[in-house]
Write a structure and sequence with these properties.
binds inosine 5'-triphosphate, Maf protein, 206 residues, 32% helix, 5 helices, alpha/beta, 6-stranded mixed β-sheet
Length: 206
Amino acid sequence: MTANLGAMDLLLATRNQHKTREFTQLLGRNFTLRDLTSQRDLPEILETGRTFEENAVIKATTISKIFPHKMVIADDSGLEVDMLAGAPGIFSARYAGENASDRRNVKKLLCELQGATERWARFRCVIALAKNRKLMTTVVGEVAGAITKSPRGENGFGYDPIFVPEGFEETFAELPSNTKNAISHRANAVAELVRYFNTARRSARK
Ligand code: ITT
């Protein structure tokens, strides 16, 4: 493999390998992405915000204070179900309790929706970008869909086995990763982030 010398270095403030894999595919060859998996002794980041945006900003700025010269991005994301007034929302990762597995979170959601005929939902993703300890911007993406009655498929992570994106019949876990990465909440947010970098680069050249 040859190094891409013109690529921009980004540090993704996560230990969630699934997110890292998706970001790597979404950002492509113009970016070199690292995450926090090889970093030991980092303080635990408490996600005390009330919104995806607040939590994404907390993650990005906390890590930027530790690595001030890196361009840091953080993703806060989750599933909002209309029938449940937007739950699990920012609690998506811990819906069935702190450190709950994806399987337990999915089981709890299906239980809450038992018998419900109205099953509309959306995934939301906010990415915060920080450099030199300061927030530079936030970008947002979402994808609408519906919750199935039981899990289907092996791809992806989290709630993918029970989420059918609008216009499809398969769940995100049944669709190939490049289809998810063409339409997902994270794909839409990353596209906006890349537009931000391109605009910043153009105005720096002027
Ligand atoms: P970091 O905070 O370290 O990035 P995390 O998994 O705790 O990792 P979040 O707090 O943003 O991240 O919670 C995101 C949760 O939302 C995730 O654990 C899933 O349950 C759900 N989620 C987000 N994006 C998803 C996707 O693309 N497919 C399925 N579930 C998703």
